[in-house]
Amino acid sequence: MADDRAKKREAERRRYWADPERFRAKRRRNRNPKRESEAARRWQTEHPGYAAEWVRRDRLVNPEKYAERERLRGPRNSEQDRAYQRTYREAHKAEIAAKTAAWRLAHPERNLELKEQASRRRRARLTGVPHEEFTRDEIFERDGWVCGICGEPVDPTLPWPHPRFKSLDHIIPIAKGGANTRANVQCAHTLCNARKSAR
Ligand SMILES: [Zn+2]
């Protein structure tokens, strides 16, 4: 009986490896594990979201497996985590800078938004005025894409550095004690904004 089962298993194994493609794939993996992992990475970038979806489904099926991992991992963003992130950033400085530069090139609009947001935050901190987090687009939408300085419409499709490119105007400038809050900003044309700050 046990003999039978062993025979069956052996037959099963032979059938499994009889598939030449499967056998070759295994041999490839064993011979060149590095190239294989590169191929796997390439496949993952060509199929974005597949791995995440697989994990999401696996999580639903095996919740205890993930609970155990979380428990072993410890609290998120602990001092240990931050120390690891610091050393990682130090060791991968050039790589991170290259990736960031590439991302900026690929997302010019978002890059501008983030730069502006950081600049507003910094200026508000330096001058000690109240500060609120918001996005430019949120304000443009609120103001119906109409320039608050000249009253003319702002065309969202115009590219930078067109003089009528969308711009965020601080009604009372931060330099004059104006707050960086929704109440103190409005949609404007770049040129109207520049003229106003030159006064
Ligand atoms: Zn205007």
Description:
- The protein is mainly alpha-helical and 199 residues long.
- The protein has a domain at 106-198: DNA Binding (I), subunit A (Orthogonal Bundle).
- The protein is built from ten helices and two strands, in the order αααααααααββα.
- The protein has helices spanning 2-18, 20-31, 33-46, 50-61, 63-73, 79-91, 93-106, 108-127, 136-142, 190-198, and strands at 166-170, 185-189.
- It has a two-stranded antiparallel sheet with strand order 1-2.
- α2 (20-31) crosses α3 and α4 (50-61) crosses α5 (63-73).
- The radius of gyration is 28 Å and the shape is elongated.
- The mean pLDDT is 89.
- Bound molecules: zinc ion.
- Zinc ion (ZN) is lined by residues 147, 149-150, 152, 188-189, 192.
- Zinc ion is lined by residues 147, 149-150, 152, 188-189, 192.
Briefly, what is this?
The protein is mostly helical and 199 residues long.
List how many beta strands DSSP finds: 2
Oligomeric grouping of the chains: single chain
Number of helices: 10
Small molecules (ligands, ions, cofactors) in the structure = zinc ion
End-to-end gap = 97 Å
Strand arrangement, major sheet: 1-2
- Secondary-structure-based class equals mainly alpha
What is the H/E string? Answer: HHHHHHHHHEEH
Which CATH top level class of one domain fits? Mainly Alpha
